[in-house]
Amino acid sequence: MQSFIKKYSIFLMLYIVFQPVLDAVTGLMAQAHINITFGVLIRMAVMAVTVFYILIFLILNRDNKHGFRVIAYFVVLGIVSVISLFINYKQKELFIPSLEITTLAKSLYYPVMLLGYFYAFEELAEDRIINRFFPKVIFYAVNIISVIMIVAHFTNTSFSSYAYYKLGESGWFYAANELSAIVSIAFPIMVWYALKKISNWSRIYYWLTIILAIYSALLIGTKGSLLAILFGTCMAILAAVIHFFRDSGNRKFNAGIVALLVLTLGGVFAAYPAMAVSRTAELHSDMIKYKKKQAKTKKGITKDQKKYVETNKTVSYLLSGRTVYFENAAHNYSKASIAQKTFGMGYATSFKSEKKAKLVEMDYIDIFFQFGFLGTIVYLVPLLYCLLYLIGAFVRKFKYMWSYKWAMLVASVALGFGMALMTGHVIEAPSVSIYFVSILSYAMLNARVFIRNDQDPETIDVED
C-alpha cells in the first residue's frame, strides 16, 4: 500500500499537466455537439480513486484523531448533500436528477482534491521529490494552454469568448470564463518559476513563456484575466524591489529583474487598446446607452434589462450583469421553505425549464443558494480553515514573505479566493479548482513547515 501511496502521489502531481489536454478535447467535443463530456468523466474517475487514496493514507498514517476528523467531515458533508437532494426532489418546482447529481459531484471535487493534494505533497516532500514537480507542472500546464491558444488564433480555429459580439478567443477551450480563471490563478506561479530559473541572463528565454502566457490571457478578452495579470506582475515587482534592497551583493542583477518586470507591465498597458478586453468595456457602455434609449420606446425593455441598466455602471461592468441573476436567485430563495433555506435549493435555485436555469456565477453566492446556510458552512470549512491559517502565517512571518516563492503564492491564493467571488467558475468548476486546490495545498504545506520549524522550507522549492 505504501507503494500505491507514493505512485499515486506522483500521479496527482503529473495529472495537473494533462488538464489543458482534457479541456481542449472537451471543448472540441462540445463544438461537435457530442454530449458526453470527456473531461468530466476522467475527473470524476480520478476523484473516486482519490477518495480511496485518502483512506489508505489515513490508515497508514495512524494519526487516529486527525483521521477521525477528516472522515467525520466527509460523512457530515455527505449527509448534508443527500438531505439537500432529497428536499429538492420533494419541493423543487422542476427537479432534473442528472443535472442536480452532476452539479453536486462537481461541487464535491474541491474538498476531495484539496485533501488529496495536501497528502500527496506531504508524501513527496519527505524525500524532496516535490521540488522536481512543483511548480514545474503548473508552468508546463499554462504553457500548453498558451500554445493551444496561439495555434488556434493563427489558424483561425479559435472559439469566441463572447459569441454574441464575436469578441475574444478561448482557443479550443469551451468555457472562456473557466479558461480565464485558470490562467489568472496560475500566472503568479509561472512568474515564480521563471524568476527562479533566470539565475543569469543566459536563461532569459524562460521569460518568453511569460510573454506568451500574457498574450494568451489578453486574447481571451475577459477583464478577470487582465486584472490578474496586472496584480501578479505588480506583486512580482514589489518582491523584486525588496530583493534589490535586501541583497546588496547582487543589486545589478536584481535591478535588471525589476526593469524586466516593469517593462512587462508597461507592455500590458501598451497592448491593452488593441485587445478584445478594451472593446468589451466600450461595448458595455454602448449597450447600456442603447437599453436606456430602448426603455423610452413603446417596445420597452424586460425587467432583467431594467435592473441591469439601473445598476451602477462600474459594478455592472465588473460583475457582467451578475447582480441581476443574484436578485432573481435571492427572490427565489426568499420564497423557499425553511428546509431549503437550511440545506439549499440545489442547482440554480428554482426554474421552470432547464433553459431558464441561471447561476449567479459568483461562487460563494451560488454555493449559498445551492447548499443553504447550514450546508454552506459545512462545505466551506476546509477553505475557511486554509484561508485563516495562511493569513496567520503571513502576518507572523511577514518579513519573510517577500521571496519570489511566497509573494507569488500569496498572489495566486489571493486571486483564487478573489476570482471565486468576482468571476466565479473557480471552486465548483473541476477544470479550475484543481489548479486552485493544488496551489492552496502547496501553500498550506509550506506554511505548516514554516510555522512548526520556524524556518523557511527551502527544500520545498523550485529545483535548481
Number of helices: 18
**Rg (CA only):** 23 Å
Distance between the termini: 32 Å
What is the count of β-strands? 2
Mean pLDDT: 87
Shape: globular
Question: What is the chain-wise order of helices and strands?
Answer: HHHHHHEEHHHHHHHHHHHH
- Which sequence of strands runs across the widest sheet? 1-2
| Unreliable stretches | none
Instruction: Describe the sheet with the most strands.
Output: 2 strands, antiparallel
Based on helices, strands and strand pairing, what is the structural class?
mainly alpha
Report on the structure:
The mean pLDDT is 87. With 464 residues, the chain is an all-alpha fold. The relative contact order is 0.13. It is 74% helix and 1% strand. A two-stranded antiparallel ribbon has the order 1-2. The chain is built from 18 helices and 2 strands. It is globular. Helix 3 packs antiparallel against helix 4.
Features:
464 residues, mainly alpha, two-stranded antiparallel sheet, 18 helices, 2 strands, 74% helix, globular
Topology, pairings included?
Elements: H1 2-15, H2 19-31, H3 38-61, H4 64-91, H5 97-126, H6 136-154, E1 160-162, E2 167-169, H7 176-197, H8 205-220, H9 223-246, H10 251-271, H11 276-295, H12 303-310, H13 313-319, H14 322-334, H15 338-343, H16 363-396, H17 404-422, H18 430-453
Helix pairs in contact: 1-3, 1-5, 2-3, 2-6, 3-4, 3-5, 4-16, 5-18, 6-7, 6-8, 7-8, 7-9, 7-17, 7-18, 9-10, 9-17, 11-12, 16-17, 16-18, 17-18
